[in-house]
TrEMBL record:
Transmembrane segments: 21-42, 54-73, 162-180, 200-221
Keywords noted in UniProt: Cell membrane, Membrane, Protein transport, Transmembrane, Transmembrane helix, Transport
Highest taxon in the source lineage: Bacteria
Taxonomic source organism: Bradyrhizobium valentinum
Keyword field contains Cell cycle: no
GO BP annotation list: protein transport
Protein name as annotated: Biopolymer transporter ExbB
Membrane topology type: Multi-pass membrane protein
Domain MotA/TolQ/ExbB proton channel stretches: 142-231
Location in the cell: Cell membrane; Membrane
Family affiliation: Belongs to the exbB/tolQ family.
Amino acid sequence: MSARMGAETALSGADTPERGVLLLWMIFTGLSIFAVFLLWRYGLIHLMVASDRTYISSLIAALYVITCGHCFWRTRAIAREGEVARGCRAVLSAPDGAKALNADARNLPGGLVTDHIRSLVTKAKAQAAGRIDQTLLLRTLADRLRGSNGFGAFVSDTLMKLGLLGTIVGFIIMLAPIATLDAADKAAMKSSMGVMSDGMAVAMYTTLAGLVGSILVRIQYYMLDAATQRVFSDAVMLTETHVTPALEHHLGTPP
């Protein structure tokens, strides 16, 4: 009972620090939305959409919005795992915290960190004596915490390549009239200049959209990866200082 109450207290008191990564993402996204509003207010977004006949810049914007939703989902998951790690630390660092391990860690808050602790308890029960090596289990925990974070690097690279594709298409549109250009025909010259201007607009707007989108995605997932690494480091410190010593003591391993 006391262990469970300690976990609930730790989780309620950990809302502010552990949800910091989620708050940081919301601040960053809020600033991005404000910037988009200003661009829309001054007609720049409408100009980009109207000038890009290939709709590559619109595709980049749609892919960026989808990626932001994925990053928000992953950020919430990591924030929750950070709270779970703090709750586990509060329970296991209590004077009778080792008793929580005897009950297969049922009193610990649910999460990936708790699953790792339960795996350690199961491994300790399976071996008769000796030190508990959690190297392989930590690798599994790192992979599970990382989850689909690699999607951000994939999307960032894709946005950059879409911008490059738009640049190439724009230059093709711009240079296409040159082959049939007649300097003596003023009407054809005027029409060709308009087509060349449209091609240059496609090249510039798609390049700009791809670069900006790639940079913003990189920033979001950098913050997410940093938060994931902090949670993993907390899990390593927790298990090395509280879990494995208690389990090894239970097995009768000499210090």
